[in-house]
């Protein structure tokens, strides 16, 4: 038989005064969260459509090698001659493509040089000669490549530089109007290069770079940047270095607004006249970003919201209710 032992009675809680219960519920009010969400969503959609209509980027087609060769054949020939002569921007750019120069500096800090050569590019070989070597069935081109490979480095530079100068002096840069001179195989190489670009074969040769899908656009962009055609297209869209345009052509959407502050500095001195603007603007943006991160710890700056209580225009004070 089991005995039942009564448990001691638990202490009862003292009821809260009626005045205390009243003070807890006095600050509540009805709130329609769904209604506010719908209003905010509609406002954001209308604002996005309006800003997209005013500030969106034009949907320009991509510049291909074939388009370049069709629109500016003389520029293609002149660029190829410059690559062979080693006088283009990419040939003397420095890291990460070569060690031809120290590159961008921030004061005594050679930032670009410190980065080292991570994407080695030989402008003459990788941008011109290698695509030509993939061409078959052209006896004149094969002979020109053999003559180029068999010549000394100084001789190659002399040929290509002389031909580049002759192109610059020719009316309209037309290769057909170049004065006679000792140019070696360079005219044959550059004319073959133009035909390759016109056929569309140059595009794949530059972008494939040993990969199956051919998604590396580094060499094609370097080649386009060495010519004048890309610069002309950029200036037509107000995207030149001394212009204020900005475009992020990734689709029919507005450009990236966060880029405006970065590109803004390029338009004003001393950055607009500096040879090291890239490094200087990068350093300034890093400094500004650090200042933004440290706002909660910066005396005076962290007190601005309390001194200028704009937030009270947005958030209602509970005492009003």
Write the topology of this structure.
Blueprint: H1 18-25, H2 33-55, H3 65-71, H4 73-85, H5 111-115, H6 123-133, H7 139-150, H8 153-169, H9 186-199, H10 201-208, H11 218-226, H12 229-236, H13 259-264, H14 277-293, H15 304-307
Helix pairs in contact: 3-4, 3-9, 4-6, 4-8, 4-9, 6-9, 6-10, 7-9
Question: How is this structure best described in words?
Answer:
This protein has 321 residues and is mostly helical. The protein is built from 15 helices and no strands. Helix 3 packs across helix 4, helix 6 (123-133) packs across helix 9 (186-199) and helix 6 crosses helix 10 (201-208).
Short description:
The protein has 321 residues and is mainly α. The chain contains 15 helices and no strands. α3 crosses α4 (73-85), α4 (73-85) packs across α9 (186-199) and α6 (123-133) crosses α9.
């Amino acid at each position: 038989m089991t005995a039942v032992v009564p448990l001691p009675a638990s202490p009862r809680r003292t009821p809260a005064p009626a005045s205390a219960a009243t003070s807890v519920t006095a600050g509540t009010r009805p709130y329609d969260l769904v209604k506010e969400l719908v209003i905010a969503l509609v406002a954001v959609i209308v604002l996005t459509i309006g800003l997209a209509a005013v500030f969106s980027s034009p949907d320009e087609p991509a510049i291909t090698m074939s388009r370049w060769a069709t629109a500016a054949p003389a520029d293609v020939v002149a660029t190829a001659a410059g690559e062979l002569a080693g006088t283009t921007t990419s040939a003397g750019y420095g890291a990460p493509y070569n060690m031809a120069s120290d590159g961008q500096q921030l004061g005594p800090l050679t930032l670009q040089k410190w980065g080292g050569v991570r994407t080695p590019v030989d402008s003459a070989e990788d941008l011109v000669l290698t695509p030509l070597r993939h061409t078959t069935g052209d006896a004149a081109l094969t002979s020109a490549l053999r003559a180029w490979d068999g010549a000394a480095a100084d001789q190659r530079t002399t040929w290509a530089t002389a031909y580049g100068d002759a192109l610059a002096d020719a009316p309209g840069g037309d290769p057909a109007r170049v004065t006679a001179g000792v140019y070696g195989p360079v005219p044959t190489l550059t004319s073959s290069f133009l035909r390759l670009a016109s056929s569309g074969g140059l595009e794949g040769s530059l972008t494939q770079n040993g990969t199956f899908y051919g998604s590396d656009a580094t060499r094609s962009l370097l080649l386009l940047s060495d010519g004048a055609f890309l610069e002309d297209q950029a200036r037509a869209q107000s995207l030149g270095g001394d212009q204020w345009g900005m475009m992020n052509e990734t689709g029919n959407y507005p450009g990236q607004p966060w880029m405006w502050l970065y590109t803004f500095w390029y338009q004003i001195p001393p950055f607009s006249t500096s040879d090291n603007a890239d490094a200087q603007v990068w350093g300034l943006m890093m400094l500004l970003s650090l200042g933004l991160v440290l706002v909660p710890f910066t005396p005076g700056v962290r007190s601005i919201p309390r001194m200028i209580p704009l937030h009270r225009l947005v958030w209602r004070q509970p005492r009003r209710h």
